[in-house]
ABC transporter ATP-binding protein (Planomonospora alba), 319 residues
Amino acid sequence: MIGRSESTDEHGTPGHEGSGGDLATAVLEARGLGKRYGRRWALRECTLDIPAGHVVGLVGPNGAGKTTLLKLAGGHLEPTAGGITVLGGRPGSTPAQLARVGFVAQDTPVYAGLTVADHLRLGARLNPRWDAALAGERIARLGLDPAHRAGRLSGGQRAQLALTLGLAKRPELLILDEPVASLDPLARREFMQGLMEAVAEHEFSVVLSSHLVSDLERVCDYLIVLVDSRVRLAGETDRLLATHHRLTGPRRDPDRLPADQHVVSARHTDRQSTYVVRTDAPIHDPAWTVSRLDLEDLVLAYMDRRPAESRRATLEVQR
C-alpha cells in the first residue's frame, strides 16, 4: 500500500503501523488541527496522515470529532487551529480542488422536492468532471424512476441516490459521514456493495465514518480510531489485527509484562487478568491463553477512555 500510517499510544506518543512510503501520496494530512465553536472545541490537536489508495474506516465515540474532521476535509469548515491538506491542497480553496472531492453527509441529504432526474441535471451543472453515463447507468441498475421525487424514495433509495451523485462527480477522494446509520441491514449491505463495486472499477480513495463496525469490517482495509480528537490507532486493518492479541491467564500486574507488549486495555478479576496487547513479537508465555481479535474487539479496546495509569491504580486498589 502507498504512504505512511501513524498510530498513537495511550499517552499520544507516535508509533507506526503499515508499510511506510512517501507522504506526498497522502490523501489527507492534518497537523494540530482544531475547530472551535465559541468556547467549545469540537476538534483539537488532531494530527493524522491518511495514505492514498485505501477505503478508510473512521470510528470513535460520539463527540470524538469525526464529523468535524470530515467537514474540514471536505472544505465545509475552516480550521480554528492547525492545518489540513487534502490531495495536496487546501480543502475547498478552488473550484478545481472542490471537484476532486466528493462528500456524502449524514442522513444522505437529497432535495425532497426534486426528482431523481433533477438531481442528475443539478449534478451535471455543478461538477465539471461529471460522468453522466455512470450516473444514468447506476440509476437504471438500481431501478430508480427518474421521474420520482426524492421525498417519495425509501431511505435506502435516497442513500443510493446520494452515493450516485458522489460517484458521478468522479472524485479522487470520496468522504462518507455515517451514510448508512439509519438504514436497515439489507439497505446497508446494498449500499456498501455498490460502494465497493465503484472503488474496484474507478480506483479512488474513500474515508468512511461509521458506528457500525461490522459494516467497516467488510469494506475497509485501513482503520482510524479517534477518541477525544486524538488518533489512538491508525493503520492497515490486516496489519493491526496481526499485531494485537488478547491474553488471558492468572492475575498479573501489567508491569510484569515484557517491554515489547504494549498494553492497550486490561480487565481483572480476583484470579484472572485479561489484556489486549500490541506486539510484533511472538508470545511464548505458557501461562497465557492467546486469542485473536476481530475488528470490533480492536476498536473497543482503543476506545477505552481510561489511561494506563488509571488501570494500574485500579489494579493496586483491587490487590
Remarks:
- The two ends are 46 Å apart (CA to CA).
- The chain has two domains: 5-238, 243-318.
- The chain is about 30% helix and 30% strand.
